[in-house]
Amino acid sequence: MEYHYEHEMKARDYECDAQGVVNNANYLHYFEVSRHEFLEAKRVNFRRLREQGIDMMVARVDVRYKYPLQGGDRFVIRLRLQREGARLVVQHDLHRLPGEQLYTRCVAEIIALKDGRLTDGKIFDAIFAAELA
Amino acid sequence: MEYHYEHEMKARDYECDAQGVVNNANYLHYFEVSRHEFLEAKRVNFRRLREQGIDMMVARVDVRYKYPLQGGDRFVIRLRLQREGARLVVQHDLHRLPGEQLYTRCVAEIIALKDGRLTDGKIFDAIFAAELA
Amino acid sequence: MEYHYEHEMKARDYECDAQGVVNNANYLHYFEVSRHEFLEAKRVNFRRLREQGIDMMVARVDVRYKYPLQGGDRFVIRLRLQREGARLVVQHDLHRLPGEQLYTRCVAEIIALKDGRLTDGKIFDAIFAAELA
Amino acid sequence: MEYHYEHEMKARDYECDAQGVVNNANYLHYFEVSRHEFLEAKRVNFRRLREQGIDMMVARVDVRYKYPLQGGDRFVIRLRLQREGARLVVQHDLHRLPGEQLYTRCVAEIIALKDGRLTDGKIFDAIFAAELA
């Protein structure tokens, strides 16, 4: 399997809950960070898009938690994009470092709104021309 | 459709991100709160379970975001439980108040660990005897 | 000591960190919630203020943590306001329930911006006329 | 002024609230991260300390917010330590990059507990021998 982008991170102690492992919600934060970093690598700024009336919103996520991360763990999130109609489907594979074991997998479906209305998603093709070609 | 439990909440301003709506990750916090409140209504304490070596962990979530909540919005999360092998499958329907429109739906699969090892999930039958019968 | 407002809350399990108690940062969230609820009780909407170009920002906080809250703990935050020049000085006393023991005390200094520029803070007198008289 | 440690970070979009800037509570997360990184650089693991019954807790924070960070902003947190009785007093200066402007300053007082009881803080001298000498 070929990925389009990867971003390395480190689990923070405050992201863990009383169970001593990263709380399930914080993975969605990690995945969002990896997508925004990918946008930045494409010289697209999430905040500047907003000023043009364009909002990218998560329409669906499907997350499978295989092993729990602990505070201090290093990991890498690897992304693979696909276009499905109006939606950008992003697979996020989270591998723990070192060792590269798959800890979490998330498939997120992203939509683009213009002034609050759903678009046909052509903006995704424009931004990710190389990946979606 | 019949629900087994419901819990009312209010979106907090700090749970919104720069897009002005509740960030996608925070819904997982809301759903967790509703499950823990359900446990409490059953006189089961999430923290005391931990002290007995029992951990309930989220193994999978599938969330569909239909409409975005804004800061100050009131909503109710309605839960329906089902047992599937070792897993407790929890449907969470988030309806905005007033009006009762379905804003978000989440199906979460929960597993129970005893001293770090996966159990057969019979503890779910013990806790939710009435609902899973 | 007389308070101007109080708001009751319950600590959520995800707000605890691996130390098993509420993480120090989350208290600032609690205090913000209590202030926004006070504004709402005055029929002032934090989000609508923003649309008029008015932002209330925290300029300083001084928090003393005496006892740590655990997940599930109920508590009440009691507020007392004072005007000091351009700043609204808000004392927040967090008492655990039942028992009313003082767990945390925060003094926050709030400023009001209009279109990004510091105001003289007269808007505070308008909103909290009864309390600041 | 001489600092004892520094740690570079980047503000994440989800850490901003509806005001479009980093929420005031998240700075406490940043400061905690910088302290835990400093511990790690000393080969002291926050989680392993816990297993030995030692907890470091925040007893007080005093934060002055001068300018607000936006999502995507890079910054460095610079730490300076001082021992005052049982407490470790940590000054955190947050400078935005590039430009090095001081955005936020926090003075935090940290205590060490052993099996839940306050210690005299000699553990701080042991860990930060070079800095506190």
Q: What distinguishing features does this structure have?
A:
homotetramer, 133 residues, alpha+beta, Thiol Ester Dehydrase, Chain A, 41% strand, globular
Q: Would you write up a description of this structure?
A:
4 copies of one chain form a homotetramer. By secondary structure, chain A is of the alpha+beta class. Chain A has a single domain (5-132), classed as Thiol Ester Dehydrase, Chain A (Roll). Chain A is built from 4 helices and 6 strands. Chain A has helices at 26-41, 46-51, 122-127, 129-132, and strands at 5-10, 54-65, 74-84, 87-97, 102-114, 117-118. In chain A, a hairpin with a 2-residue loop joins strand 3 and strand 4 (87-97). Chain A is globular. Chains in contact: A-B, A-C, A-D, B-C, B-D, C-D. At the A-B interface, helix 1 and strand 2 of A face helix 1 and strand 2 of B.
Helix content of chain A: 10-25%
Q: Kindly estimate the percentage of residues of chain A that lie in beta strands according to DSSP.
A: 35-45%
Uncertain segments of chain A: none
Instruction: Kindly report how far apart the N and C termini of chain A lie.
Output: 17 Å
> What letter string, H or E per element, gives the SSE order of chain A?
EHHEEEEEHH
* Oligomeric state of shown chains: homotetramer
Give the structural class of chain A: alpha+beta
Q: Describe the main β-sheet of chain A briefly.
A: 6 strands, antiparallel
The count of β-strands of chain A is 6
The total tally of domains of chain A equals: 1
Question: What would you report as the Rg of chain A, rounded to the nearest angstrom?
Answer: 15 Å
What is the CATH architecture annotation of chain A?
A: Roll
CATH superfamily of chain A: Hotdog Thioesterase
Shape of chain A: globular
Q: Determine and state the CATH class of chain A.
A: Alpha Beta
In the CATH scheme, what's the topology name of chain A? Thiol Ester Dehydrase, Chain A
User: Given the structure, what is the number of helices of chain A?
Assistant: 4
Of all chain pairs, the largest interface belongs to: A-B, 23 and 23 residues
Mean pLDDT of chain A: 95
